[in-house]
Amino acid sequence: MENNKTSLRAALLALLLAIAAAGPSSMPAAAQGSPVIQGDFVGTLGPLPLKLHIRLAADGALSCTLDSESQGALGLACADVRRDGQNLSFSVPSVHGSWKGSVDSNGANLTGTWDQGTPMSLNFSKDNLAASAKASPVDGIWLGTLQAGAQSLRIQVILTSDSQGQEHCSMDSIDQGAFNVGCANVVYAGRQLNFDVPAVKGHWAGELSADRSTLTGNWNQGVPVALNFARQSKRWSLPPVTSDPAVAPVKVADMQSAMSHDLEQALKSGALAPETSAGLTIGVFQHGEAHVFAFGTAKPDSIFEIGSISKTFTGLILAQMVEQGLVKPDEPVRQLLPSGTLVKREGAEITLLDLTTQHSGLPRMPDNFKPANPDNPYADYRASNLYQYIAEHGLEKVGTPKFLYSNLGVGLLGQALANRAAVPYPTLLAQQVTVPMGLRDTSVTLSAAQQVRFIQGHAADHSVAHAWDLDALAGAGAIRSTANDMLMYLEAQLHPDKLPSTHSSKARTLPAALKLTHELRGDAIAGMQIGFGWLYVTADGTYWHNGATGGYSSFAFFNPQEDYAGIVLLNTTITATGSFADLVGHHVEQRLTGKPAASLGN
């Protein structure tokens, strides 16, 4: 979950999901006489257009990022970038993919193969944008700070002009880990500059100073906010991340000791240093053995906001109600809304299944989302606001929508299911999932005793963050839980038939409902598919989801083939280098499977 008013994070991987386990990796530059590889390249993987951005540092080190704009996946960090004469290779850890191929004599064409389990041809060619012979006065790199409530976000804009005099730009939201977000409608005339950022429905307008050193203007995503830029000599980029060597697969009983060693630097001077007040709780399960342990300010029974992992619970509620005959997956959402909310129109309608699989075509957030308190942004978005949005925009399904991560969509699903059950979402969650599954510390609201264990959340700069209270969009990210409860939830995913049998009708349908949530119903980001909320990595059979709120971040995974699962809960939100919870989650899975693991140091 994220505050749409202040977010420049585009779709799935740049929000909730700072899934990337590693940033750009570097290797020595090619030998003298080999073609220089640097710049922006375009290619197509099946029907998917891709952009590859290769950078050559002053010391000769290569790094790269990959964009799949049509899927909302931008700035996916490369690792293991290797150059040997005409040969080039790199991996993209966040999607478990790798590319290997060759470079032509002028460095303009890359011919090779992409592999995410099934090798596919993927060739790149240098982006044919012809640069202007004479740079425009606004061309260059610009850095500014957007004040979003108590948080300051560094915003970077890169402007270039082509041979026809047309301006082009891309935007980075550094502190949210969103890079290469595309601009549109870029116009510069008479020192006035305007551009749109369609991915977040934002617009900037302002003026270039007489000395060409500053851009002064406003950013608008519904409410104008001052955003000024200063010219920079070089582009800010993520620092390289190294990998720890592979070790033999770590057993559950030994994982705490292994993680204590691997987190040693982070606990002293990194993400978990004493001055950050950070607390991390980890739960691991494999072959019937479970263990929960904590670091920093956290305890094994600390309660955290789990953010968008809540979407998997909402998916399970849907599956439960399907198994109980209360709803149908292909039922139009309109039929679960109050009478008169929306008049049926001709054509296809958005269904319940469309919402849980993120194929509804609905935007990330509604355009009438205007929080009174940016520190607790979802608290005043009520059902009446949601129904107003729906009445104005409708729920028609246009064509065949692609995967588009939508807090609005899953929030709407939670509200619709609550309407059908005639109870509020928190009550529905308890009835359908937490009570029959025995999750005593998993809920939307906390008791007085639980509140004592609710660990304080922190913003990216480690300042104290307000807890988030969700109303109409609760199904998208309102749940709070412990590592113990989440590990029980993940163990149930692995072994639904081993759930304790009870006389409760809700408990009797749980095994079938859990299996239903794992059925893959559509494509997600490259190399992944999606079930009822859970994302699935085709290459290794892992289901996963992550989350982030203003003061917390989380990562959950389970692999039925290998019978392991893990949960990571952190009381710090996503920072400039991405989600530390995601990084730890990938590291734990890599230790379980005996693979090289991304370093958890600084």
**How large, in whole angstroms, is the Cα Rg?**
24 Å
What would you give as the CATH superfamily of the largest domain?
A: DD-peptidase/beta-lactamase superfamily
Give start-end ranges of low-pLDDT stretches: 2-33
How confident overall, as mean pLDDT? 87
Oligomer: single chain
What is the molecular shape?
A: globular
Number of helices: 12
Description:
This protein is α+β, with helices and mostly antiparallel strands and 602 residues long. The protein has three domains: 39-126, Beta Barrel (Lipocalin); 140-232, Beta Barrel (Lipocalin); 252-569 and 577-598, Beta-lactamase (3-Layer(aba) Sandwich). 20% of the residues lie in helices and 30% in strands. The protein contains twelve helices and 32 strands. The strands form five sheets. Strands 1, 2, 3, 4, 5, 6, 7, 8, 9 and 10 form a ten-stranded antiparallel sheet that branches. Helix 3 runs parallel beside helix 6 (407-421), helix 3 crosses helix 7 and helix 3 (310-323) packs across helix 11. The longest helix has 15 residues, at 407-421. The radius of gyration is 24 Å and the shape is globular.
Summarize the structure.
The protein has 602 residues and is an alpha+beta fold. 20% of the residues lie in helices and 30% in strands. Strands 1, 2, 3, 4, 5, 6, 7, 8, 9 and 10 form a ten-stranded antiparallel sheet that branches.
